[in-house]
């Protein structure tokens, strides 16, 4: 029997199912939810950032030290292949800032609809409401799964259950236990691309404020704070959009730094963020800008002048934090007060004390150890006949379409490889 069973109907699972079927295998896709692709349908705030136009070296670099594992999968099926696939299925795409690629009409459910139709055209047997409880082995090799209490047999199984982020879509971490049951080890999982929690009430006072073009400096250090630990500080810089929440900070620039933040907090490190509202201006240029504004508007109150420097919601916070008086005329501001304002504009401090959970995380960090998966085929090194793909693996990248491309690519390779294994 050359039947392939695929567990999980997300991005990796659907690509795996389609490729396996296109390669001549009989394919059964087991999805525990009523409909496949639910996480795709809400990804990218409902717009679905499918991939990124970055070239291969840059793309891999966004995955950090584990990125090189993806080289084989990307050589088989990469961003231009994915773009061509969707265009051939009638989906028009658009490239936005940072190389991010979306459906032109901005509707993530269109992506799911296309994938489902593609699987139907390839005669993939989709079985919704099918929860897999166990992998079935015979002489140490895969022979099927136990699904809803009943055995379903197949020569190969592709595990593509996703991680634990957005559990309401079906990503509840089932695949980790299944992988462990046949000998795989799991790198500890934690939320990735997730908002962070900050000390104090400054973020709460600014809740809902959305800033663009903000510089963020991240410092990670030992809590002891002695001179030796200061030398061991890790410093990172980022630039982009930021959103204030009642509990802390979110937005693309924070999500990009969050994986480092989560790991640092889990290691009991001290984590501090500093916001730079004027990253395009150094101290000298910013001081010149302030002097010019104060001179030109010397008869206006500071509250009015500050509105030209920052959103209105930030003005009252700025006045409170710097000690400037709202109705003081700009022409009366002293040099030391201007210096205090200049420093605050480029150095708004936040101590990070925690991070939000999997319900708000875009991805899951950690997962099945890459040492136990063959990057040339996505085959398990622990159990013949088992293949693994997608977010279940210990792969995580920045925002921008990288993670979804990895799911599509590893799924594509797992499906093709499983079909070849069944035809041996």
Automatic annotation (TrEMBL):
Residues 3-416 form the RsdA/BaiN/AoA(So)-like Rossmann fold-like domain. It comes from the Bacteria. InterPro entries: BaiN-like, BaiN-like_dom_sf, FAD/NAD-bd_sf, RsdA/BaiN/AoA(So)-like_dom, RsdA/BaiN/AoA(So)_Rossmann. Residues 190-363 form the RsdA/BaiN/AoA(So)-like insert domain. Keywords: FAD, Flavoprotein. Pfam families: HI0933_like, HI0933_like_1st. Its cofactor is FAD. This is Flavoprotein, HI0933 family. It comes from Candidatus Electrothrix marina.
